[in-house]
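Issue: ligand-bound run for NDP - logging full I/O for the record.

Environment: standard queue, default settings, no custom constraints.

Inputs:
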Amino acid sequence: MKFQPTASHFINGEYLESANGKAIDVVYPATGEKIASLQAATPDVIEKALRSAAAAQKKWGAMTGTERGRVLRRTADILRERNRELSEIETHDTGKPIQETLVADASAGADALDYFGGLAASLTGEYIALANGDFAYTIPEPLGVCVGIGAWNYPIQIACLKAAPALACGNAMIFKPSDTTPLSPLKLAEAFVEAGAPKGIFNVVQGFGDVGAALVADPRVAKVSLTGSVPTGRKVYAAAAEGMKHVTMELGGKSPLIVFDDADIENSVSGAILGNFFSSGQVCSNGTRVFVQKRIKGAFLDRLCTRLASVKIGDPMDPEVNFGPLVSQRQLEIVKAYIAKGLAEGARLVHGGTQLERPGFYLQPTVFADVRDEMTIAREEIFGPVMSVLDFETEEEVIARANSTEFGLAAGVFTHDLTRAHRVARQFEAGTCYINTYNVAPVEAPFGGSKLSGVGRENSKLALQHYTDMKTVYVSVNELQAPY
Ligand code: NDP
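Outputs:
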């Protein structure tokens, strides 16, 4: 099999196979063919990963930030040199079109390694003047062994977004990819070793939820960063709380995208397309509730459907194709069930809605109009190519409805009215907001969710705080007074 890795896991600088692990079959979503077969980690593999990470962290944490940064930036260069190969792996693992994976996966991961590699040398504490010449200073210290757990939509990007700040701060990481897409994080582990990282500083352990749970529960683990659904987030957060561990939670969403009637129609249709159909709709921050002001509803839907008619669905390895299959048969069934619910609850299907008659897990980009707030498709995260268009009349009404959700990952507004744009952004209950654009997530700016969508932030300088323990040292230069 072309994409079969040397072995399932990567521990202490080398590939390792687990004897008798549960089988993990990797399938190309465009055809349903098996492209690799791995084995889930058994307890001895997990133990090896924990030991090697703990030992490596001691060496890595003692290096200077400049040295660590150099390794991260070299790793970024290696990913960029191999971008084509890594993108082909990602396309076969996830089904995402090669035109997407070439620009949004390993290359975005390399940006994170460059960015945090650049910051590693700047991690310093501060001097704090106190009364009578006394003072305190702070020392940013690594947390120790961190666990990263990934979802299946951006396997190597998620691994890099977690590993880069963790390693920059002097931590070690054990990464567990989703069992649906286990391949590319192994290539990241190879690149770290080639770049000169100590063996064991980034280990990859394959498995299902139980392997993730075993890692989270281990007392040697100081921090857990999860990208996944809200139900998994609840379990992982609760398990981490037992050991008072640090957490970052990047979870699901049902984000609103508001289009006011003064907005540029083409731009807002572009925003709705980018916010719903990139990666066949399998993006956490998608603006799946598109609120369109009544006066322009007809024009908006006309342009949207016209532009969707030119989508190129097909073999994701064809560079012309811009819409691929869903990641798995299971995800296809979940999304089809939501489409059936949308129809049953009275939403009006204006585009798509059916599975393609060809091998693989293909579903047309789907748009429902006349969606009401209480419908299932407007409340639950679907994680597939299904856009709900809802009507609104006033700014006050639409903000209340946009915020009326337990999620708070992202939100967007399209308008030409400058004051309204900022007023609306200020009122959104969401961690990541967009004005006249949607779904960009450059490494320089913080990304993450409010409410049930998450805890903590990835990207930006803020991420460094989530991988650092700040030690305070008080110093007296005076005689000490005691009451007796
Ligand atoms: P899941 O929540 O099903 O799984 C996420 C990861 O957690 C997988 O690796 C899974 O293992 C693992 N896992 C499952 N149970 C446990 C457990 N008890 N303890 C530890 N680990 C566990 O999410 P999906 O993979 O289905 O991804 C889709 C979800 O991810 C969507 O809700 C999406 O919104 C969210 N997401 C959020 C992003 C963000 O940045 N906010 C970005 C991308 C996706 P396995 O599946 O192998 O069994």
